[in-house]
Amino acid sequence: MSNAYLNETELYNKKLKEEFVSRYPESAHNVYRRIFYYSAAAEKMYGIDLYEFNLNQISEVLFSINASSLASVKSTVSIVRAYIDWAIHYRSNNINPLDIVDSHWEKQFVDSTKKLFFSKNEIDEIISKCKNTQDAVIIALLFDGAGGKVVSELRNLRPRDVNYDEKSITLTNEKGEQRLVKVEDQTIQLVREASSQQEYYKRNGHVSPNARNTKETSELIDTGYVIKPAKTKVVHVEQVNTHVIYTRLSGISDEDSLNIPNFTVKNIQRSGMVYMAKQILDRDGKFEDREQYFEICKRFRINKINNNGYETYNWFPIKQFVNMDMIHQLYGEDSLS
Fold it and tell me: What angle do helix axes 133-143 and 265-284 make, rounded to 10 degrees?
């Protein structure tokens, strides 16, 4: 169901739904309404409001959303549960059917056809199939924890920021803030090779013979940064813009190249978080403590929040996918032994 269609859908019992939504920050209103847009069809069919639904009817709504992650399902269930609790006095009984469910029940609503996480071996295989080290280094850096707003830490990286002996990289974000990150040997090598690459293979070397410009490569401009722009009519003198990063990932992942759906900046970074959790598990023999999550937050520069006057990492959202279940899913039974 497209956003356009959702926006045209009339909420069922709209006045009550809007009253509930208004209790939350305005920034969250569209998130809540979106769930009620999905529930509207079922509410109209059964002739009752969502607050009166039983578990099977709620399941129909959750299946219709086609969520691609357990985190998304949990968020939706939490909102529906809150709505039923809020409207419980309208319900024919005082029982919220969602009070008895757990994560095992919620898992059925995840669309498993949408692969969102990649193991270290899968990432290495994808990197090995990249025709350009300019592309491969983007994947490696994201997986190792680089990012920043509008991927600024990748765009700002210069060859001089790399310590080849220490296998570390100084990353600079959009605010000019710097941090030192230890990275994989492969990442260091890819940075070296990408810095010296002079010709860029278009579409990972899969240029259509029917294309207007069938030249296989473009000249790269040395701007003093690791990730370089291709030579065009536009003169580049500094770092590439954000669009270049996303376009290059798209170019190697689309169906005419490596055909890897959902191979995005966010999903590569999240996969790197799971891999780091696997490494911590191997090191400590367990993965459950807050301090272990903080290590991941520091590496991937997760935002901090004020918690009762104390500044701490906002680590709860990543727990939805950085956990023992996901480690097991990507790295098998051996990871739990």
Answer: 50
Contact between residue 141 and residue 123 where contact means Cβ atoms under 8 Å apart: no
- Burial string for 266-283 (b: 16+ CB within 10 Å, else e) reads ebbbbbbbbbbbbebbee
Instruction: Select from 191, 192, 211, 195 the least CA-distant residue to 203.
Output: 211
How far is 95 from 310, CA to CA, in rounded Å? 37
C-alpha span between 111 and 99 (Å, rounded): 23
Site of tokens 């978080």: 273
What's the CA gap between 239 and 38, in Å, rounded? 42
The pLDDT assigned to 146 comes to 96
Rounded to whole angstroms, how far apart are CA atoms 151 and 241? Answer: 9
How far is the C-alpha of 247 from the C-alpha of 241, rounded, in Å?
10
Residue tagged 């278009």 (tokens): 202
Q: Measuring CA to CA, which residue among 222, 278, 263, 275 is closest to residue 138?
A: 263
Mapped onto helix, strand or coil, the DSSP state of residue 233 is: coil
φ, ψ of residue 304 in degrees (nearest 5):
-100, 155
Single-letter amino acid, residue 188 = I
Q: What is the pLDDT of residues 167-185, one digit of tens each?
A: 999 999 999 999 999 999 9
Q: How many Cα neighbours within 13 Å face the side chain of 60? A: 12
Q: Which two tokens stand for residue 59?
A: 């399941």
Q: Which residue has the tokens 């790197």?
A: 272
Maximum pairwise Cα distance, the chain: 70
List, for the chain, all residue ranges whose pLDDT scores fall below the cut of 70: 1-9, 27, 68, 112, 207-214, 233-237, 333-337
For 279, half-sphere exposure in the C-beta direction (CA atoms, 13 angstrom radius) is 13
CA distance 69 to 50: 23
User: Kindly report the CA angle at 249 between 326 and 330, in degrees rounded to 5?
Assistant: 15
Task: Read off the pTM.
Answer: 0.68
